[in-house]
Amino acid sequence: METIHVQHPLNIERVNKEPCVMALGFFDGLHIGHQEIIRTAKKRAEERNLALALMTFSPHPSQIIPMKKKVDHYLSPLEAKRGILAKLGVQKLYVVTFDHAFAKLTPAEFVDHYLIDLQCRHAVAGFDFSFGFKGQGNMGNLAEFGKGAFGVTTVPKVERQGQKVSSTLIRSLLASGNVNGIPEFLGDFYKVTGQIAKHGDSECHEVRIEDYLLPHKGIYEISAEMADAVYNGVCMIEDDPIKVYVKLFNSVKARHKETIQIKWIKKTSSHRMLQPV
Ligand SMILES: Cc1cc2nc3c(=O)[nH]c(=O)nc-3n(C[C@H](O)[C@H](O)[C@H](O)COP(=O)(O)O)c2cc1C
Ligand SMILES: Nc1ncnc2c1ncn2[C@@H]1O[C@H](COP(=O)(O)OP(=O)(O)O)[C@@H](O)[C@H]1O
């Protein structure tokens, strides 16, 4: 997968582009709703023999525009997003810097410069995707702004348990420590990647995790992947200041600075921190 970072104003001559199907959205977490968008876009790309592209933004629009909640930690920071998108078959990833100049674009300007000029031949997004100044562009008027340059597919709402699957919903499950409820919406357990920051004589390792949203403080059953091997263990999250400690069962020790991927299984009680299951 090719990753192309662009910033407004676009110097279109210098952007590596090709006729494509473009999936649109922020896509934090790549939950089952997002996966449905990408599956649909992939189908359209195959039918039309076009490249599969996806446009996302960085940072989250709420960092620039006042919104109800400011997102400053992610379910899938850009590197994690890249890995997941490549696996889902995305061939070109456009990462647009979301700054004030970009946020001020009218829906027509966004479509002209970021879809038509990037050779989008078909756009795919969910029923609630919005774009352009004050979110005035939507799936009801996207085709009109496209003036026939591309077709549009709107993916209907993906729901579970009577609720729209959303990154906000997954964030609230993390905030309540309800990590075992996440796979229903995410399609998998919630995973974060970090580095072993400190290890002493004890088998309890401190892990440094950046950019990811973490579950609520407490003790969790986890599985950890390091150097292609998977271990079971427990993880303790402290807040104020935020610290993450991992203990792997069977006295497995991790090396300093080793990369560790933590998969959150469920919240547990403190005594199991000492007593492996
Ligand atoms: C060109 C452009 C301008 C935008 N301007 C605004 C804005 O002024 N106010 C706003 O609330 N959102 C704005 N947005 C953000 C969108 O409403 C939306 O959050 C973003 O496109 C991510 O879509 P998603 O949340 O459906 O993934 C803009 C988006 C784009 C692409
Ligand atoms: N549950 C869903 N059903 C259908 N489409 C969705 C769903 N959730 C998100 N989308 C679409 O996925 C893209 C990215 O949406 P985004 O706003 O980043 O997700 P979320 O609503 O989870 O924060 C947009 O095109 C959006 O319309």
UniProtKB/TrEMBL annotation:
Pfam families for the chain: FAD_syn
Entry GO MF terms: ATP binding; FMN adenylyltransferase activity; riboflavin kinase activity
Similarity comment text for this entry: Belongs to the ribF family.
NCBIfam families registered for this protein in UniProt: cyt_tran_rel
Keywords: ATP-binding, FAD, Flavoprotein, FMN, Kinase, Nucleotide-binding, Nucleotidyltransferase, Transferase
Leading EC class: transferase
Reaction(s) catalysed (UniProt annotation): riboflavin + ATP = FMN + ADP + H(+); FMN + ATP + H(+) = FAD + diphosphate
Record InterPro entries: Cyt_trans-like (IPR004821), FAD_synthase (IPR015864), Riboflavin_kinase (IPR023468), Riboflavin_kinase_bac (IPR002606), Rossmann-like_a/b/a_fold (IPR014729)
Residues in FAD synthetase domain copies: 16-168
Protein name: Riboflavin biosynthesis protein
BP GO annotations: FAD biosynthetic process; FMN biosynthetic process; riboflavin biosynthetic process
Pathway(s) annotated for this protein in UniProt: Cofactor biosynthesis; FAD biosynthesis; FAD from FMN: step 1/1; Cofactor biosynthesis; FMN biosynthesis; FMN from riboflavin (ATP route): step 1/1
Enzyme Commission no: 2.7.1.26, 2.7.7.2
